[in-house]
Amino acid sequence: MSDRYKFQFRPYRYQFCQPLRTSHGIWQIREGIIISLSDRAGRVGKGEIAPVPWFGSETMAQALEFCRQLGKSVTRATIATIEDVLPACQFGFESALAELKPQNKGEDTFKSLNYSYLLPAGATALDICRTLLKNINNTCDSLSVSNLAESERPFSIFHSPITFKWKIGVKPLEEEIAILQQLTRILPAKAKLRLDANGGLTVEKARTWLEVAERIAIVEFLEQPLPPRQLETMLGLSKDYVTPLALDESVANLRQLANCYERGWRGIFVIKAAIAGSPSRLRQFCQQHLLDAVFSSVFETQIGRSAVLKLAVELGNPHRAVGFGVEHWLKK
């Protein structure tokens, strides 16, 4: 059978319901590319290229240029040799190839997953959290959610406790700690809260957050408190506190993931598979090293989301929620 496939691509662009504010800045528009590969039997596999250049992937312009230079067909060999500087392209093309294989394409495989819901930075998190909890309660009261397809569920409530992630390191420290105290009064007793600093804290502020986390006892982990260049300091912090640390920006791609593991990181790895690079090599690494892995969204469409969630079911820590509770950020 020929390994040459008919190739098509279509860029997309959509706006968030509200800007996503992190220590990196403001993100308002999600751009990406939907690709399709067709074989001689007429089967079609779709994939998604969803770059996040400020997180370490290629730019949208680089991804578009790569797609354009391929022309109307592509071979398996070409896909296998996509350079590491194009990690989102690696993911998109390999995912499309995987879709050409016979498999169960239903959503049942995702039923075992629990979702972590993303809260915005600042005091806005309080109203969003109240709305999410209200919707979840209404769903519990009115529906038997276990009988619904994933696409029909406004929120995923397969396991308790419910998990939220809140962006910190954006507002002044004292203001954020005061908001956190209000959040703890809103959240259910058994809720878990992830604090995501996106590498925006100083060592002193990281220690303050960890001390606060020890007191309130609902923080599942503090995510990427310091910039990637300060891995040794984060290794030290991870030994000084009970609250776990997680790496995110430090492990944005497979090369960085391997590097942090080799340098001794055995804590939590937040993996944004859509920009991490080759899914097959990622699978091999995770299976080899049995990571405490949390798979997380980069606001993909349903095509990229499905590909990542398949990896999450296979490779993620089943006791931790996946970072895909982001539907309330996306315009329909």
Average pLDDT rating: 91
The CATH class designation of the largest domain is: Alpha Beta
Biggest sheet: strands, sense, closure? 8 strands, parallel
Total domain units? 2
Description:
The structure is a single chain. With 332 residues, the protein is an alpha/beta fold. The chain has two domains: 4-99, 2-Layer Sandwich (Enolase-like, domain 1), CATH 3.30.390; 108-329, TIM Barrel. The protein is built from eleven helices and twelve strands. It has helices spanning 60-70, 76-80, 87-99, 124-142, 173-186, 203-216, 231-240, 254-262, 273-276, 279-289, 302-315, and strands at 4-22, 25-38, 44-49, 73-75, 115-119, 163-167, 192-196, 219-223, 245-247, 268-271, 292-295, 322-325. The strands form two sheets. It has an eight-stranded parallel β-sheet. A four-stranded antiparallel β-sheet has the order 3-2-1-4, sandwiched between helices. α7 (231-240) links the parallel β8 and β9 (245-247). It is globular and about 60 Å long.
